[in-house]
Amino acid sequence: MVRVGQAAPAFALDGAFGKRTSLAGLRGKTVVLYFYPRDNTPGCTQEACDFRDNLARLRRAGAVVFGISKDSVASHQGFAGKYELPFELLSDPDNGVARSYGAFGKKMMYGREVQGTIRSTFVIDPRGRIAHVFSPVRVKGHVDAVLAALSGEAPAVTPKATKKKVAKKKAKKKVANKKVANKTTKKKVVKKKAKKKVAKKKTAKKR
Known about the structure:
Blueprint: E1 12-14, E2 20-22, E3 30-35, H1 42-53, H2 55-60, E4 63-69, H3 73-83, E5 88-91, H4 96-101, E6 104-109, E7 112-117, E8 120-124, E9 130-134, H5 142-150, H6 160-206
Parallel strand pairs: 3-4, 4-5
Antiparallel strand pairs: 1-2, 3-8, 6-7, 8-9
């Protein structure tokens, strides 16, 4: 996964508007580059429509938007036409660009690990450097988070790192609780053994 502050990986891809778009050609602009798994799927459609419905706000914030998936140009044209998407969708057929950004790899889907596109968004500053990273993306509220980042109201990286820290804390707590539980169990076992020993002694004395 690319990191905030590093140079954004270069790309040159064909899009639904019949043009080839390159990162070099976008120098001087703030670019919102979002990677999504597939045209016409529920989550990807919602995300695209959210960007569409907020495009005026994004433009006022000085950004241009591009969506990228492995779908063909023809698929993008159908998808963009069907939902009246006013921004360019770029075709990355071999997932090469997605891989270079860290937006392709192992992920969990329906409870199992698979290889595929990791829904991610990158804000690239006018100098061509990564300004903000959102990965993995949850569609609901995502565009608002991007707008907040563009206005300087959000951290440069999504709370994934924070989630990892929380998960680590939970794991440590779980281990600590297990240790306490094990100690408690051991104490109970020792007490039971001691009681049995005392009971045996009493029985022996009675005899």
